[in-house]
Amino acid sequence: DRMYTITNVGGTPGGEAFLLVTEEKAALIDSGFACSAGRMVANIKDILQDRPLDYVLLTHSHYDHASGSAYVQDAWPDARVAGSVYAKKILEKPSARAVIREMNDNAALLAGISEYEDRTDRLHIDIAVSEGDVIGLGTMKLRVIPAPGHTKCCTAFWCEEEKLLLSCETLGVPAGGGMVMPCYMVGYGLAMQSVERLAALGAEKILTPHRGLLEGEACTAFIENAVYWNKEFMRRAREGRRAGKNEAELAREFKELFYTPFMAEVQPEKAFDLNLGYTIPMLIREIDGE
Fold first, then answer.
1. How far apart are CA 171 and CA 49, in angstroms?
2. Which partner for 133 in 129, 142, 217, 259 could form a disulfide, CB atoms 3.0-4.6 Å apart?
């Protein structure tokens, strides 16, 4: 007897966005690509009908999670965009906006979308949230849990009563077959603190970015696999590095392991390579410094 619904309203694979509707309020979790934002807005309208959209909750500032929020606010001017203090700073940086624009153009190309209106310069955060802040969705209360690891600006949202975790990519992304692709780009130690903290919440339902809601055994398995693969990734990197492998060799090895057809459905190869291009050098620095 659930008092809320969660629906994937994303406009195209890889640009997932999830609409959380309670009896009193509605919040969009992430907002997908720019090029598919029109379709996403139409999907939201289909569900909400005449009801307002109250919030857009951003788990982090990356293009595939934040870009659609400018289009959403055109459709629902009263909706407030919430994200971390750090995400707010990122979205205000011209250099970050340039990357967001470039990655959106790449996503549009891959999706076969020839033209879309670029609203990157209007991306912003209205409510900068920090540890312990609460987003009220009527009877449902979401507590903000900073979870740096994938990025410094990553944030998760936790509903204690429902044992529902609206996660971020710091836990990793399911790669199929029980594998979870680690996504740490800002330090292994920092990421593991966040992973262990989220794992310890005792979630019974978890909203995973790109893959949607996992419940019961699927939720438990994902969290266990996330902890395992986040550690295993570093163990393999350490072993490879000590055996004399360089950056390119390690990157090739991890790509063979994790860039599965299942992963390719939600992440363009260019974005995967870009992430790995941050992660491997960072791990090498940590390993060489041990």
1. 34
2. 129
Closest CA to 87 of 96, 75, 74, 79: 96
- With beta carbons less than 8 A apart as the criterion, state whether 166 and 154 touch: no
In the numeric block, the tokens 């997932």 are attached to 16
Residue 183 and residue 148 in contact, taking contact as beta carbons nearer than 8 Å: no
Q: Could you count the other beta carbons within 10 Å of the beta carbon of residue 107?
A: 25
Are the C-beta atoms of 80 and 55 separated by less than 8 Å? yes
Rg (CA), the chain: 18
CA-CA distance, 60 to 30, in Å (whole number)? 8
Residue with tokens 């999830």: 18
Mean pLDDT, the chain, as a whole number? 95
SS3 155: strand
Q: Which of 42, 51, 46 is nearest to 78 (CA)?
A: 51
Q: Which residues of 57-77 are buried (b: 16+ CB within 10 A; e: fewer)?
A: bbbbbbbbbbbbbbbbbebbe
Summarize pLDDT for 86-123 with one digit per residue, the tens.
999 999 999 999 999 999 999 999 889 989 999 999 99
The answer to whether residue 194 scores a pLDDT higher than 80 is: yes
Strands 127-129 and 80-84: parallel
pTM of the model: 0.95
End-to-end CA distance of the chain: 51
b/e per residue, 22-45, with b = 16+ CB within 10 A?
beebbbbbbbbbbbbbbbbbebbe
